[in-house]
Amino acid sequence: MEQRSVGVRPQRREAAAGCETCQRRQPEQERRLRARKLLDVVELTGSKQSRKPGKLSGGEQQRVAIARALANKPQVILADEPAGNLDSQTADTIVDLLLTLAHTQDTTVLLVTHDVAISKRSDRTFRLAYGRLDEE
Predict the structure, then answer these.
(1) Per-residue pLDDT for 80 more than 50?
(2) Domains of the chain and CATH, by start
(3) Measured between alpha carbons, how far is 92 from 105 in angstroms, rounded to an integer?
(4) pTM above 0.85, yes or no
């Protein structure tokens, strides 16, 4: 199996620790609590929160990356092929999660995909072809 890196940099620590690295200004206890809450938001619960990245599935690693992206309460999340290396069921779950977060977390999700089925699920769709960007 191919070794994967998810997020801004390769993850070498447990899921919760990777999530809290973005919030250095808060006391450690608050960071850990927020990290666990974010992992709950992306439905990575229980003992999975303390597993090393190599022990998480591809979909679970994507969930950690999404939780890390949410750590600083961004206005925009850029998601470049977030379901590209996942099986179709896990891909659907990840896309569902991103679309739900866009509506519940007051965050814009800019999702780039080659999958027409995924693009049809978004609120607005743009197509880039031959150097032109057109709204569909």
Answers:
(1) yes
(2) 15-135 (3.40.50.300)
(3) 19
(4) no
